[in-house]
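User: I'm new to structure prediction. If I give you an amino acid sequence, what do you actually give back? Let's try with this one:
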Amino acid sequence: MSKKALVIEDNGLVGETLKAMLEFLDFEVVVVEDGYKAQEKFKSAVESNNPFDVVFVDLVLPEIPGSEVFKKLKEIDSHIKAVISSGYSDDTSIKEYEKLGFKGVLNKPYTIEELKEVLKKLDLL
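Assistant: Good question. You get back a string of structure tokens that encode the predicted 3D arrangement of the chain. For your 125 residues, that looks like this:
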């Protein structure tokens, strides 16, 4: 059975690229552009007993920041495996991602090899 990934990314090209990489690695992928849609998708997946195995959270999102979205998702499921993704590598959230509860970090732009490393660290590959 393939694993499920939720990608929260407001840049369509970045979201589609990550989706393609994850599908190549045999993941079923849902891409959403904002934090509110992400919360809905995440909550319904948990409630239907078919949760996401991993969530990729863009740090900079319209309306609510990625770190806030992550807090909301963590309230829904405290066992969430989330990876923070950003082009702002000097942001405090990136430097202190583990303190925030993220399990991994991807600095944009990243390669499929870097993606694989993060997924291996999460025991998903």
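You can read the tokens as a compact description of the fold. Here is one thing that stands out. The helical segments are 12-24, 35-47, 66-76, 92-95, 97-100, 112-121.
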